[in-house]
Amino acid sequence: MKTIYSKLFLSLLLTFLFSTISVAQYKIQGPGISPSKDTVYAGIKYEYKVVNFPNTRSLVWQTLWGLLDGREGESVKITWDNVPQGTIMVTGFNGTSNVTMEAKVKISGIKPVPEPEPEKPSAPEFISKLGPLLFFSNVENTRTYQWTLPRGCKTTDGLSGTFQRKDISNNNVWLLIETPLQLYYEGDIKVQAISNKNSLLSETTKYKLKVLDISYLNIIEVPEAIYSDDKQKTYTIAVDNIAGAKYKWNISNGIIVSGQNTNRITVRPDSPYPYYKIDLDFSINETTSSKSINIKAISNEYGLFGPEDVYDKPVEFYVKYPQSSPIYQIAWLINQHFYSLNPSSKFVLDPSNLNIGENILTVHVQLSDRYIKEYNKIIIKHSNNENKIYSITYDNNTKVLKVSQDQTCNLDSKLSIRNKSTIQIYNQQGVLVLSKAHLNTNSFESNLNNLKQGIYFVIVTDGKNKTEQKIVIR
């Protein structure tokens, strides 16, 4: 009998232990149930479920202080009342018996409404750039702007880095800047508006500043002139070679022989013209600027022609100019003073009002395209040719200057060189290079081999008469 009771007791004990262990494996999980760290607020729907239960279809849910969204199954959603704690109860059949599980849920009341974030001002918008002047939109309800300039950039009154300023013109905010003195400069300018309500800064507006100062692109090779008569001769024009830059050349009245798209081109004249204009479009980092190079034309066919020595009688001058464009007007000037205006290429000069000595005759040829070509000629005014009592000659072979009495002058006006005459020689710049005074001979000779090649003016005076003569030393 004892043996039967012992076996029955052992069987019940094992059944109890098995049942206890099985129930301990079943759990209700979800927000607010330990060990969950999630905060549960009243009025908000949360999901809960049972884990490790063998027959989830048999589960039935109940709550205390909560509203169930469904009552059966492995999981449900519950909306909690505004109480400190709620209870969940779940009953189910595990295959051998009905099991009830229970869990406590901590409720933290009504979820607090967060304070609205302070309103930031709108970000300024870039409007335009006019040289060194930048324009941005004027954001309403802002007391100032915060600027950040890139390294090397500053305002015209010396501000750099980060600073605050707001200058308004025509309802736009402007900033006047200076960049380094160099060919190309690039950097980001950052600007933010500052609210006058809460001092908050707007989002940052970035403007990519690109400055190309073409004046710093050096011309490293250019001819002084182009001989327009020789259409086979070539000339080289070159500027600095900048890595990554683009070069686009154009020449008026000429042909680019080679070098297009490089920093160095070879050109030749195509038509006779008073000048040649070379235009360069220079680009770097999608920023373009233009540079022009003007080269004067030289032609043996064109110029101002007429006598170099004049006396009191009227003399004729004429000008020859390229016929590429119709003539518009011709102006004649004596010693830079206006003398005559007419469309004719010929001009009759009355020397009676000229000063004795050197004078400059200038002609301005204005073509229909408004280009003005200038020609100059030095003319020497002498005293009346009938009273010229000295003969002045120069021999380029012997380099000897001879001064003697002019036998063609009137007999009663003749004076001897030995009557203390003075001989002076001036160069084109008016500098005295040789002087011989108080000569007492009928003639005078002097070797001029120590003078450089060029044009000189010989003046002989005796106190009463004066004779001038231009000589050319070759």
From TrEMBL:
It comes from the Bacteria. InterPro entries: PKD_6, Secre_tail. Residues 231-271 form the PKD-like domain. Residues 411-473 form the Secretion system C-terminal sorting domain. Coiled coil: none annotated. NCBIfam families: Por_Secre_tail. This is T9SS type A sorting domain-containing protein. The lineage of its organism: Bacteria, Pseudomonadati, Bacteroidota, Bacteroidia, Bacteroidales.
